[in-house]
Amino acid sequence: MIVDSAHYVDGIRAEGRFDTSEAARTFDDPHSFIWVGLFEPTKAEFDEIRRHVELPDLVVEDALNAHQRPKLEPYDDDLFVVLKTARYLDREEEVEYGEIQVFLTPHAVLHVRHNAPSKLVGVRAALEHDRQRLQCGPGAVLHAIIDHIVDDYEPVVDGIEQDIREVERQVFTQRLGENPVGRIYGLMRTILIVQDNLGPLVTPLQQLSTRHFPAVHEDLHEYFRDALDHLEKILTRVSTFHDLLSNILAANLTRVTVRQNEDMRKISAWVAIAAVPTAIAGIYGMNFEHMPELEWWFGYPFALGLMFGICVFLYRKFKHAGWL
After folding, report:
1. Which among 112, 142, 108 has a CA at the least distance from the CA of 124?
2. Which CATH number fits the domain 2-255, given the four candidates 3.40.50.10860, 3.30.460.20, 3.40.50.360, 3.40.30.10?
């Protein structure tokens, strides 16, 4: 589905919606370009666009299938860029991912969006109010899209950080029977996936900020460098999250081990206390011919008192030692 299409001349959008069938005549003007946005297009829609805008077969195949890693591929004077969008689902503690492919020529921008995250309506509106940047041509559109996607990772990282703080408190305040190890491993997996989707974007941004591409104006290099700095800061935060979760996992294991040791001490103490009456009662159960209670009236009270006294003595000793 074509979401929007427009023709820009000298940084100003022409009135109305641009008909892609008129694309060929715009290529004669060095100060104009077209920008077409699609959302999960069908093959028939791509075939219609390919009648007027030349697209390599591999680009069409990637755009239709999606599920690509972030990358930058040059095709003569043209560029094909794949970007991963993200939105954090706080309740599930997972990240929902989408994908945007951008095909860039010196006179045209075609972006294809898959899944819901990172809509580009606001990007187009904001860029249309910045005539100076739009005068830099299609490369300005590419930068605006990349900058928007990188910015959208900020709330994702903030959401992950908040959940890490929660699980950290949970480790040190957990009640009996609770163990947040599953939540910890889930967050670690989420972080690794974020790194997999953001990390490969570093190299394309480095290339866009240093190398010459016909479809990217030289004045845009500093803009791409700024986006690269922002991306690297986010990746640094994410890498620290993984280390923090590893430390939390180790702390949780230590607390579980300490709790198990405390439980074992308590069990051992109660077993020792229970062994005293069991031993005395066992001796009386041997049916000796001469037993104290048969010849002494206080025999049974003495035996019971002895059991009780030793048990109280052991209980106080274990309590003082911290075993109970």
Report:
1. 142
2. 3.30.460.20
